[in-house]
C-alpha cells in the first residue's frame, strides 16, 4: 500500500513534464493539496535551490521520495533546453 501524499511531503515526479522543464525523477515538495485530495501543487527547485516552477500535478504522477532518491545526484532533474 502506498503512502497517502500530503502537504510538505517530498515527492518524485514519475513522468516528465517538458512543458515545465521537468524530467521524470524530478524532486519537489507538495505546497498545497487541492480539495479533491487527488491533485497537488508542487514546488520544484534547481540545483542552486532556487524555485524552478510551482505547478499542479495529479497524485498519480507523483510518489513519495525515498532516502535513495534524496541521496542521488539531482542534476538531471532539469530538462535540457
What's the short story on this structure?
The chain is mainly beta and 81 residues long. The protein has a single domain, classed as SH3 type barrels (Roll), CATH 2.30.30.
Plain-language structure description:
This protein is mainly β and 81 residues long. It has a single domain, classed as SH3 type barrels (Roll), CATH 2.30.30. It is 6% helix and 36% strand. The chain contains 1 helix and 5 strands; from the N terminus they run βββββα. It has one helix at 67-71, and strands at 10-13, 27-33, 39-45, 51-58, 62-64. The chain has a 5-stranded antiparallel β-sheet with strand order 4-3-2-1-5, with no helix packed on it. A hairpin with a 5-residue loop joins strand 3 and strand 4. The longest helix has 5 residues, at 67-71.
Distance between the ends = 37 Å
Mean pLDDT: 85
Q: Per CATH, what is the topology?
A: SH3 type barrels
Q: What percent of the residues sit in helical stretches (DSSP H or I)?
A: under 10%
Top CATH class: Mainly Beta
Core attributes:
five-stranded antiparallel beta sheet, 1 helix, SH3 type barrels, single chain, globular, mainly beta, 5 strands, disordered C terminus, 6% helix, 81 residues
Task: Walk me through the topology.
Elements: E1 10-13, E2 27-33, E3 39-45, E4 51-58, E5 62-64, H1 67-71
Antiparallel strand pairs: 1-2, 1-5, 2-3, 3-4
